[in-house]
General stress protein 26 (Lipingzhangella halophila), 170 residues
Amino acid sequence: MVDPVAELDERFSEPDAAPPPWSEVVHILSRSEMFWLSTVRRTGQPHVTPIPAMWLDGALHFCTGAEEQKARNLAFDARCVLTTGTSDFRSGIDVVVEGTAARVTEGELLLRLAAMWKAKLDWDFEVVNEGFQHPGGGAGALVFGVTPDKILAFGKGQPYSQTRYRLPAG
């Protein structure tokens, strides 16, 4: 992935603010364990849920059971938002990733993701039926990847800032 162009939004940033380096945003996406996934129900009502996600190859990946609300929502409308950051008001950076979720079914990518879940969260998954399953059986999980259409970073503290990262086309 080519580094996106950072654009500081001066309307929502203090005069001495600068965009966080892209490497810092990637570090946050890679290090964060929990994200908030926002989807839309068929009725148009929003649905938000906390979920672990993995940053790999320029996309955020998460998994869910096929019958869970988020999976049903994504089957209806694959557009979604994942957010992460801190609950602090005066420190840290919050990151918002907007994009479209797509099923991940390719075996090698699923194996890499399963290894990440194990290393980062000590959560075991086996790759079966183009998705994940807990060792020993049980219901499977669909795996999704969200390639960003838009990324925002909100710097909290001195100085406050809002940055949009413009992703290269294609």
The chain has a mean pLDDT of 95. Residues 42 and 86 are 30 Å apart (CA to CA). Helices lie at 22-31, 69-76, 107-121.
